Amino acid sequence: MNERTSWPGGPWLGTFLLPAAGAIIATYLTIRFVFRKHLHGTLPDIAEDVRLSTTGKLTVLGIIATVGVLLSCSALGKSLGLPTLLCAVVVGLFSTLRDRGILFVVARGVSWNVLPLVAGFFVIVESLNSAGGLRFASDLIDKFNDWPALGANLSTAFGFAVGSNLINNLPVGLPYPTNWLARCLSVLILAPTYR
């Protein structure tokens, strides 16, 4: 039984590639328009030849290897958390082979005060789950299936946008498993096709 499985990212790209490209283009055009006076001018002529250091070249190789590892894990349907952590540690150590001082520069550059904040988000999500808040939110979104497509799309989009602005996007999107979000989004985004 030789059954070929498709790449898990295929449906995601089919759904989000065009909107993501549109968002990037709209952001670029908006920034270019708003800051056109500040962006107008000439650049100074840089006479020196800037070359990437050996440490920089090692880092680039590590990033390329990380991309390969994460794409492979994604294609195989594996979790990306542990491979991301391991790749970050390996690339960090690999990049410091030539210059040990870089490790301390990187460690000083990390925003360590963000870690408790992110951990707090996980606590918030688990608290919501324990209190039944996630089940309530899930049931509420399931009721959008009975709404007209436009109303369901707008309500979901604005609901997630308001929630993300109130309590950050991590605890808003984190509680919902990927397959649940994909089902919800496919029902809401593709609803006009089916109605």
Notes on the structure:
The chain is mostly helical. It has 2 domains: 58 residues, no CATH class; 80 residues, no CATH class. Helix content is 74%, strand content 0%. It is built from 11 helices and no strands. The chain is extended, with a radius of gyration of 22 Å.
Main beta sheet: none
The ordered string of helix (H) and strand (E) elements is: HHHHHHHHHHH
- Portion of residues in beta strands equals under 5%
Query: Count of helices?
Result: 11
What is the end-to-end distance?
37 Å
Cα radius of gyration in angstroms: 22 Å
The rough form would be described as extended
Number of domains: 2
Structural key phrases:
195 residues, mainly alpha, 2 domains, 11 helices, 0% strand, disordered C terminus
In short:
The chain is built from 11 helices and no strands. By secondary structure, it is mainly α.
What does the secondary structure layout of this molecule look like, with pairings?
Elements: H1 9-34, H2 36-39, H3 54-75, H4 81-95, H5 101-109, H6 114-131, H7 133-142, H8 149-167, H9 169-173, H10 178-189, H11 191-194
